[in-house]
Amino acid sequence: MGVASRGLGRELRALRMEKKLSMRNAADKLGWQSSKISRIENGQQGISPTDAASLLAVYGVTGHERERLLARVEKTEDLSLLEVRGGLSRESHTLIELEAEADRIFNLEPLWLPGLLQTADYTRAVMKACHVPEGDIEVRVVARMGRQTVLGKENAPEVEFAIDEGALRRPIVSSRLMSRQLRQICETAERGNVTVRVLPFSLGGHNGLDGSLEILTFARNSPIVYLDHGISGFFLEEGYQVAFYQTEMARLREIALGPEESVDFIAAIAKDLGQE
């Protein structure tokens, strides 16, 4: 099973422990084997909406929290059946779900502008530059634009972007469209839950040049790191792995321009491009 199933399993385990029930106690109430609950909690076995509803009843979960968890079960069930659909990989679908569940997101991009900040024109140009099949491009553009709704939803996560100056200046689209793209980043940074930090050329080399990464933090589950590698991606969950990237994040935050200075920096590039 994937990261999405393991994350759901950890959340169900936390609910069971809050209720002070052992696996055997919970299983006895449902007429299950305790090994079934163990497999669900460890992400080794998916869970149907019906079984999830039964577990939540035993754990005394009702109202909005019950609805949220059942909706997550349905999403996870769909993701577990995915190989590749509509031009999106299993990892991409999982990332979309995790972003929707996260309380905080840190995204480092040294080469491209962050997907959560891209305009449709920029995304389309990136897909073409990366030789994505023509028939898949529009599906991916729509999916990426859909991802961005997480920034403005109710109870939206705190999202922090670290962007290398090279990504800001790389002419992926025309000067006019690039100027519009950068202005959109400045406008998005006005949201109270969004912070943008620039890693300027003046830094020379820095630890953020190793590659893009995303750190997702959750209220009830352990953090997850996502590393994007073109046609695939890797999710890291081990404590020492997450701690390493959290340290890298802290170092980048120390050397990057501050939020206000970063927005002014991006706006100046946008202005210059708009005059070309």
Number of domains: 2
Percent in strands:
5-15%
CATH topology of the largest domain, by name, is Endonuclease, Chain A
What is the strand tally?
Answer: 8
In whole angstroms, how far apart are the ends?
A: 51 Å
Shape: elongated
- The H/E string reads HHHHHEEHEHHEHHEEEEHH
Helix content: 40-55%
Low-confidence segments: 78-86
Give me the secondary-structure category: alpha/beta
The major pleated sheet works out as: 6 strands, mixed
**Name of the CATH first level of the largest domain:** Alpha Beta
Rg value: 21 Å
Instruction: Quickly give the CATH architecture of the largest domain.
Output: 2-Layer Sandwich
Number of helices: 12
The strand order across the widest sheet is 5-4-3-6-7-8
Overall pLDDT level: 87
Could you explain how this protein is built, in words?
The chain has 276 residues and is of the alpha/beta class. The chain folds into 2 domains: 78 residues, 434 Repressor (Amino-terminal Domain) (Orthogonal Bundle), CATH 1.10.260; 178 residues, Endonuclease, Chain A, CATH 3.30.870. 54% of the residues lie in helices and 14% in strands. The protein contains 12 helices and 8 strands. Strands 5-4-3-6-7-8 form a 6-stranded mixed β-sheet, sandwiched between helices. A two-stranded antiparallel sheet has the order 1-2. Helix 7 packs across helix 8 and helix 10 runs antiparallel to helix 12. The radius of gyration is 21 Å and the shape is elongated. About 3% of the residues have low confidence.
